[in-house]
Write the structure tokens for this entry.
Amino acid sequence: IKLENTAGDVPVLGDHESLVELVAVLLENAIKYSDPKSSVKIGTGRHGKQGYLSIRDEGYGIKASDIPHIFSRFYRADLARSKEKVDGYGLGLSIAKKIADLHRGSIEVKSTPGHGSTFTVKLPLDPS
């Protein structure tokens, strides 16, 4: 999988280790649910008093009926959407959401089955 990084420096307020874990969860999922010859795009930016990180994959996508549940602990969407068995316990996205919430931020997803997903994390900018 090709990683395309267009991310620049966007200083946000938060605990470094927790934010690294949040990004790792999102990258791991993007890779896990994508075909081997696809790409994952990582970008950052600013909007008002928030910085954002987006991770877009060209993977299997998420059905609209699953989206309201994907941030719930232990929730696993129908694995028939993947071509391989996918390991995990359904905790990653709930952990990512908890980290975003603890940092007074948010996480959202836009997805089209068969075309991939984009996860966007918004966090308060560091005013310094």
About this structure: The mean pLDDT is 88. The first helix runs from residue 16 to 32. The two ends are 36 Å apart (CA to CA). The CA atoms of residues 32 and 87 lie 9 Å apart.
